[in-house]
Design a protein that fits this description.
Elements (H helix, E strand, L loop, with lengths): L2 H6 L8 E5 L5 E5 L2 H17 L4 E10 L2 E10 L1 H7 L11 E5 L6 H13 L4 E5 L5 E5 L2 E3 L15
Parallel strand pairs: 5-6
Antiparallel strand pairs: 1-2, 3-4, 4-5, 6-7, 7-8
Length: about 160
Amino acid sequence: MNWQQICEDPNLQNLPYKIELNERGQILMSPAKLNHARLQGKIIKILNQLMKEGETFPECAIFTRKGTKVADVVWCSPELCQKINEEIETSVAPEICVEVISPTNTATEMDEKRILYFEQGAQEVWMCDELGNITFFHQENQMSDSLIVPNFPGKIKI
């Protein structure tokens, strides 16, 4: 399957799970808990407050060499938003890709996603753990703060 087929399949509409594709076109599903959604919402709210331009949104499908991965939250510059506006899955990763780590996520899986997002053009990848602690990465190097959003807190209060 490809991402467009998944998006158009009526049997896959309104599933209470996050769906991604692996490199073989197989569907990967993982249920999200309420805490996961709350963290996504809080990250979006803070990004919207701090970034006066661009767009912040959840569940962004990103085409990668290992299938379609879905970042929990992304921020796109106005220029990139215009470029990817009509795409089913983005051909270029947004400048900021955020993953909210669930208990079922492995460190290997998160490392792979980070690498894939950078390969697709992300400038920063943020990892948020279940307690709201944010780890910022720029081109595979961990940073103490975001270069794009330097005032973003290192901990989200839940």
